[in-house]
Amino acid sequence: MLPYGRQSIGDEEIDAVAAVLRGDWLTTGPAVRAFEAELSTVAGGAHCVSVTSGTAALHTAYAAAGIGPGDEVVTSPLTFVATASTAALLGATVVFADVEPDTALLDPAAAKAALTDRTRVVAAVDYAGHPADHDALRSVADSAGALLLDDAAHSIGAAYRGAPIGAIADLTTFSFFPTKNLTTAEGGAVATRDAELARRAARFRNIGLVREADEFRITDQGGWHQEVHEFGLNYRLPDVLCAIGSVQLRRLPEFLSRRAELADRYRRLLSDVDGLVLPAQRDDVTPAWHLFPVRVLGGRRREIYDGMRAGGIGVQVNYVPVYWHPVFADAGYRRGLCPNAEAYYAQQLSLPMYPGLTDADQDRVVDRLRALLT
Ligand SMILES: Cc1ncc(COP(=O)(O)O)c(C=O)c1O
């Protein structure tokens, strides 16, 4: 089966892991600091706090923002469940605002309409690797005195109006899962230009431990002492995985340019196929196509999904509207809440997209899709 996404791992990554395994630090060592510093250059100089997954990054970012019961987070339903569930885990109420019908990105007007005096975070999602309308969402967040968070699980390396993803929102979260634009096997990071948010994020991913003597509230202990002021978790990304990440970061430009090439090629090869809508792209962004999301018209998405998979092509659907998940339905969220997201979901199909996809593989995808649709 041709997968819809796949990692690209070479000898360099393998050698880097072996070197860490032979060294003194399997975790909390120099490879973590090096990876975070290198990540910062991709994220426009933001402080970067590595964590164990994109989900952990979201949890950490919301915790750093200090959200809890009584607070509201406005976000898109057209995303992976973790964008919302991690806020809910902290006790916040998730308010879903609809997406733009063509890009499936959080619609600033819908986000604005969803604001209340309890809104603490507006969480955008750079769906498929296409940056959301961050300037418009910044105005929305500012008007409520809320923080702007960017779930950039899909968009590391992308740019919005010339600014790199990671340097735009108050808090940006990355995922380094194998299908993503770069991988550490499992992994993620929080990027922020705000030193205080970075300090809170770093503390949350390290159990909440305070090690700075000038902050101690217990002052009569010895040199061993550390203490906790706010609860945290162990979300530390080990050196073994950060070593993979450092190599992958160096290869990111090569990965992104192949993804862009494949996206252009899909557009060229599929432009004349009836019953298919290709992904919209705004003029002011440089996307990092993590997914290539097409829309299948005529109520045929399920048939085409099954037909592609029967032909050995591992297409995917991203995503079921988050509030359809029974955990949200049980809490009273109803279908019909965000009609654009539901209409998009009903047609959406992700075609294979990863740097190792060859032109011949892609031709196979296109031929099968064309045959099924005509
Ligand atoms: C938009 C989005 N947010 C968050 C995540 C969570 O990332 P991870 O799988 O690394 O926990 C993912 C990954 O699937 C994602 O696609």
UniProtKB/TrEMBL annotation:
Positions where N6-(pyridoxal phosphate)lysine occurs in the chain: K180
Question: What are the protein's UniProt keywords?
Answer: Pyridoxal phosphate
One matching Pfam family: DegT_DnrJ_EryC1
- Specify whether Protein biosynthesis is a keyword of the entry: no
User: What GO terms are given for molecular function?
Assistant: pyridoxal phosphate binding; transaminase activity
Matches recorded under InterPro entries: DegT/StrS_aminotransferase, PyrdxlP-dep_Trfase, PyrdxlP-dep_Trfase_major, PyrdxlP-dep_Trfase_small
Q: Which terms under GO biological process does the entry name? A: polysaccharide biosynthetic process
Cofactor or coenzyme needed: pyridoxal 5'-phosphate
What family name appears in the similarity comment? Belongs to the DegT/DnrJ/EryC1 family.
Name the record gives this protein:
UDP-4-amino-4,6-dideoxy-N-acetyl-beta-L-altrosami ne transaminase
Q: Which organism is it from?
A: Actinocatenispora comari
